[in-house]
Specification:
The complex is a heterodimer of chains A (about 500) and B (about 290). Chain A folds into 2 domains: about 260 residues, D-Maltodextrin-Binding Protein, domain 2 (3-Layer(aba) Sandwich), CATH 3.40.190; about 210 residues, Periplasmic binding protein-like II (D-Maltodextrin-Binding Protein, domain 2, 3-Layer(aba) Sandwich), CATH 3.40.190.10. Chain A is about 45% helix and about 10% strand. A 5-stranded mixed beta sheet of chain A has the order 2-1-3-12-6, with helices on one face. A 4-stranded mixed beta sheet of chain A has the order 8-9-7-10. In chain A, a hairpin with a 2-residue loop joins strand 4 and strand 5. Chain B folds into 2 domains: about 45 residues; about 220 residues, MetI-like fold (Orthogonal Bundle), CATH 1.10.3720.10. In chain B, about 75% of the residues lie in helices and about 0% in strands. In chain B, helix 5 crosses helix 7. In chain B, about 35% of the residues are buried. The mean pLDDT of chain B is about 85. The chains are: A alpha/beta (about 500), B mainly alpha (about 290). The interface between A and B is large, with 55 and 40 residues. Chain B: It is a multi-pass membrane protein. Chain B: It is found in: Cell membrane. Chain B: Part of the ABC transporter complex MalEFGK involved in maltose/maltodextrin import. Probably responsible for the translocation of the substrate across the membrane.
């Protein structure tokens, strides 16, 4: 940590403080398996590799290992662009499950990130959904509120509610009932190119402290080097956009509702607050006033920032934990002089905490995925094999597999995963992992509302695009977005 | 005399100028269409890192066929999937093409030759479907396919593609039949042929270019279709190529060389088919468009 931030003690202090204020704000629960109030890179390291877990034995108590059944299952898969390591773990998971439950006929379907929700919605309309589904964190409340999902809590598959992040459990709770189990949770971090910082006259080992600094640094990089400073993304209907704008919005003290408060009620729309407008103004300043971000930002998603970053044409961006491993894979597969060039980029990569707002507020989207069981009437064939579904869910949310399936790109949903030997191995092998895990306590879940996917994937990007294209002023764009949220909550469509 | 020769030479010069302008225009059009294909091919032989370089490596510094080897290796999980998707696309597209021709040929013939009540209305009703975007029919067709028990089967795609491909096929073929003089059939009938024999032995051979054009059109439509294949098929072993190619996009990154190699290989059958049969395709489009 000190290698990137140069101030370990301060970091640990702020992380612990953030842990206490944000995590303890969850519902009153029995003691979790790890002490969240002590959360720090050192603490995570100290608990890693301290406990052994037997997944087959634990899941055998939920569904007997000789159970005979059939399960259809959809999930956001890992594909060609994902790190090799992660793809191998997914392969291992399904092989191990089939070996452990040889009599369960599993028909799994991997879907891409941007298509899963639309495909799932269409299947539900035709009562042809799978028996179980693993969705992005945003999806749970939407489908629970519409009555598609069966109640499902960690205890149903042999785990305890306290085994999971309180914030993650909020995302699977609708109207007081739990409808799913978190499989993995992650927070993003800030990544920059030290060489670009140096050439632009900035401290190469110091991330911008505040979002105002990001605007300033971005302009400085652009003015001095003629390249993009900050990797703004504003594409519509792509999950990457809210994951990168909401930390800025919350950092400035704004929000869609009061989701950044310790006990949110989601009653009052705050997209048109002065704080929210300041956050939008920062994006406007970078895109329109300073022209210091990629001109293609309006249609960019994170995958479009990567080539810019790799090519030394982008100074800094909010980064997914998997980015470092993606770069390593690209370096490994490069040949000749490209190999050295790739190594130079990797050597210049720096990870740090996401900047704060003007009042020192640091925030990041608490992301991840959840797993759910469908009601029989929406499933192809009209039947759900619950024991088979629970066997798979127990497996995936176990300390072992919730860690392995999140090895390179996320963190285990089951907190016990942090105690496994594989976590210790990760900490030793994955550079910067301590930075991304350090952001976890700053994580704010998206509002646990059925309208959240529409708000985050459509209204927020629309607001950005309206302001950045000049179709509306910053004030008008914020007011328009607030009105759209009010209308949506009032039952109106968009 | 001299004046006459100058006067004769002038138009020739003008023609030459136009010809050159035409050539330049065609050259630009060729560049416009060929550059993306060349870029696709060049990207497919780069490493993942080289493909992401900015400014771009116009010519790969370290060319590699790794993406093609991976895609064509059935032992590799990526290759096994790709080849399977390729095979599925081939089955669906071929079936759609064959069935499309079998239905479109008699339908177009009937519209061309028979006079019956509601003929014009029916003909335009057939074309009506093409006036709406395909996505409008997505959910209703999905529910219909589920009711028919066709979801998760290639049959759902074949039936759907037929409904989309038939209107233009019928329209194209009707135009073609309209241009075949009816007197040829009448002569055959006088010589003792039945209507079916006249159709089979006189009209069919003359309409081969039109049928081939229709077949190419159906094949390309089915080969490239994405949204219905994506919605109707929920099993990995059933997916077609356009859906399979999506797998090169991940949440936070894209495998550009793999994507380009797969896209290039996907375009090969269509390009080969078109190159081999293009004279028929062009003939059918031009002949069907003009009434003699």
């Amino acid at each position: 940590m000190t290698r990137t931030l140069g101030c370990g003690a301060i970091l640990r202090g702020t992380v612990v403080f953030a842990s206490i204020t944000s995590l303890i704000a969850g519902p009153a629960l029995a003691a979790p398996p790890v002490d969240l109030s002590k959360w720090s890179p050192d603490y995570v390291r100290s608990i890693a590799g301290t406990e052994e877990f037997d997944t087959a034995a634990a899941c055998g108590k939920v569904t007997p290992l000789d159970y005979k059944g059939r399960l259809t299952f959809w999930y956001q898969g890992v594909f060609e662009g994902d790190p090799d390591l992660l793809r191998q773990y997914y392969k291992d998971f399904f092989e191990t499950f089939r070996k452990t439950y040889p009599n369960i006929q599993l028909e799994e379907q991997a879907l891409t990130y941007n298509d899963l929700l639309d495909k799932f919605r269409t299947a539900l309309l035709g009562n042809a959904a799978p028996m179980a589904v693993r969705l992005q964190i945003l999806g749970g409340t939407e489908f629970a509120s519409k009555g598609y999902l069966q109640p499902l809590k960690p205890e149903d598959v042999g785990w305890a509610t306290e085994d999971f992040w309180p914030g993650a459990m909020k995302a699977v709770t609708w109207d007081g009932v739990t409808y799913g189990i978190p499989t993995n949770n992650e927070t993003m971090a800030f990544i920059w190119n030290a060489d670009i910082f140096k050439r632009a006259g900035l401290d190469p080992d110091k991330a911008p402290a505040t979002w105002d600094d990001v605007v300033k640094y971005s302009k400085q990089i652009h003015d001095k080097l003629g390249i993009a400073g900050y990797g703004l993304v504003a594409r519509k209907n792509a999950g990457n956009t809210p994951y990168r704008f909401m930390p800025q919005l919350w950092g400035y003290g704004g929000g869609v509702f009061d989701e950044a408060d310790p006990s949110p009620t989601y009653g009052e729309v705050r997209l048109n607050s002065e704080a929210s407008k300041r956050a939008l103004q920062a994006s406007y300043d970078m895109y329109v006033r300073d022209k210091s971000v990629p001109v293609s930002a309006l249609t960019n998603q994170q995958a479009d920032n990567q080539p810019l970053f790799l090519g030394g044409q982008l100074g800094m961006m909010i980064s997914h934990p998997s980015d470092y491993n993606v770069m390593l894979d690209l370096q490994k597969k490069a040949t000749g002089s490209d190999k050295d060039k790739a190594q130079t980029v990797i050597d210049n990569m720096r990870y740090g905490l996401i900047p704060t707002g003007p009042d020192g507020k640091r925030a990041v989207v608490f992301g991840g995925s959840n797993i759910h069981i469908l009601k029989p009437e929406y499933v192809d064939g009209g039947k759900v094999d619950e024991p088979a579904a629970k066997a798979l869910i127990c497996f995936w949310t176990s300390p072992e597999w919730s860690l392995k399936m999140a090895y390179a790109g996320s963190n285990p949903g089951n907190l016990n995963g942090f105690k496994t030997k594989w976590m210790k191995e990760r900490l030793d092998n994955i550079k910067f992992l301590d930075v991304t895990t350090s952001m976890l306590p700053y994580g704010i879940p998206f509002p646990a509302l059925p309208e959240s996917p529409e708000i985050m994937n459509i209204i927020i990007p629309d607001m950005l695009q309206n302001a950045l294209t000049g179709a509306m002023s910053v004030d008008q764009a914020a007011e328009d977005a607030a009105k759209n949220v009010e209308d949506l909550k009032g039952g109106g469509g968009l | 005399m001299a004046e006459t020769s100058t006067a004769r030479a002038r138009p020739r010069k003008r023609v030459d100028r136009w010809r050159w302008a035409g050539r330049i225009f065609l050259g630009l059009m060729l560049l416009y269409t060929a550059v993306p294909m060349v870029w696709m091919l060049l990207t497919s032989i780069k490493s993942g890192f080289a493909a992401m370089q900015l400014p771009p490596q116009w010519w790969p510094a370290e060319p590699t066929l790794a993406s093609y080897q991976k895609l064509l290796d059935p032992q590799n999980s990526v290759g096994a999937d790709f080849l399977h998707f390729f095979w599925n696309s081939l089955i669906v597209s071929t079936l759609t093409t064959i069935l499309g021709v079998i239905v479109a040929v008699p339908a177009a013939y009937a519209f061309s030759r028979f006079r019956f009540p509601g003929r014009n209305f029916l003909f335009f009703a057939v074309l009506l479907r093409n006036m709406f975007p395909a996505v409008i029919f997505l959910v209703p067709l999905f529910i219909l396919m589920r009711w028919l028990g066709l979801v998760n089967s290639h049959g759902s795609l074949v039936v759907t593609y037929l409904t989309f491909g038939l209107p233009l096929s019928i329209w194209l073929l009707k135009g073609f039949y309209d241009n075949i003089p009816i007197q040829l059939e009448q002569a055959a009938r006088i010589d003792g042929a039945t209507r079916f024999q006249a159709f089979l032995k006189i009209v069919m051979p003359l309409s081969v270019p039109g049928i081939i054009a229709t077949a190419i059109y159906s094949f390309i439509g089915a080969w490239n279709e994405y949204i219905y294949a994506y919605t109707f098929l929920n099993r990995n072993d059933q997916l077609t190529l356009p859906v399979g190619i999506q797998r090169f996009f991940s949440e936070n990154t894209t495998d550009f060389p793999g994507l380009m190699a797969a896209s290039f290989m996907m375009s090969v059958p269509v390009v080969v088919l078109f190159l081999v049969l293009q004279k028929y395709f062009v003939r059918a489009l031009t002949e069907g468009a003009v009434k003699h």
